[in-house]
Amino acid sequence: MNQLLELWQTTGIYQITFPQFAMIVIGLLLLYLAIKKGFEPLLLIPIGFGGILSNIPGVDIAVGDGILHQFYVMGLETGVFPLLIFMGVGAMTDFGPLLANPKTLLLGAAAQFGIFSTLLGALFLTDIGLFDFTIQQAAAIGIIGGADGPTAIYVAGILAPEILGAIAVAAYSYMALVPLIQPPIMRALTTKDEREITMTQLRDVSLTEKILFPIVLLILVAMAVPSAAPLLGMFCFGNLMKECGVVDRLSDTAQNSLINIVTILLGLSVGSKLGADQFLVGSTLGILALGMVAFSIGTATGVLMAKLMNVFSTHKINPLIGAAGVSAVPMAARVANKVGMEANPNNFLLMHAMGPNVAGVIGSAVAAGVLLQFAA
After folding, report:
1. pLDDT digits (tens, 9 = 90+) for 65-77
2. Among 8, 44, 119, 233, which is least packed by CB within 10 angstroms?
């Protein structure tokens, strides 16, 4: 009987606490959203599964010498995984729409306002005693507004690794919910006539322009904001491999095999930070709420910038593409196109929206560099 009792006491059923049980349920919820609803399945499945593993009692898989902790140390503490993801994204990105209509770069820049306004908001809530965020944590929370999961993870891993799990879940959840979050904001800030604006065909962009752009972009931005060089450098390197046409094998690897492997490891590493003792704290709800505010402000300021540009421009921009200034590529561009077609079935905005969408990726990387430079 004593042996049976000892065996029972070593089981996870006996050892499990309510917070651990709650986190396992949250992990199952992430799996449900990924599998049933199709919300960012490439990330939510490994994150959710990693979260379940890290909360099973008696299995130290997410601490010490555990495999998930080793993934975290290898890829997130060093920042390697988000940087490799950025290289793969760069290899899949076409700068053509941005180069064909360079003024859309302003829309991507405007959409980053959500990052810095939320940073200030988090510090204000700390000042009034509602939360207790450090400036590093506030900066990590603000970057959620860029709607760029790898960037959010990269910044949080450096500035505030203790809240990495909550930030990663918030960032990828809001990226997945772009089709639900953005349209009401877009419709509220535009008139029907504005949503019906038809934009002219984009010009053809030469191969020389596409090859030179990532090189020039990296040099100019890195000189101004050196802290942005790692993220933007990997992004531009991936894009250069794609456009130069002489390293197709490397480009194909970056776009497929490498990014797929890193995505698995990144998701499991983030899941290792969903332990009950780290995630179920009072600040988590504040992080999720502030992340939503950051994303909403970024969407709104992108639309409002487009409206402002129309005041001074003879060639009108459909303000809906301003919402694509957040860097949820290509989901935000597709949403802008869908809302535009609801107002005018013959209005195809997808390629026009890809300009600010790609600009948003650049903008979020630059914003991350600024935060790292001043908050680290």
Report:
1. 889 999 998 998 8
2. 8
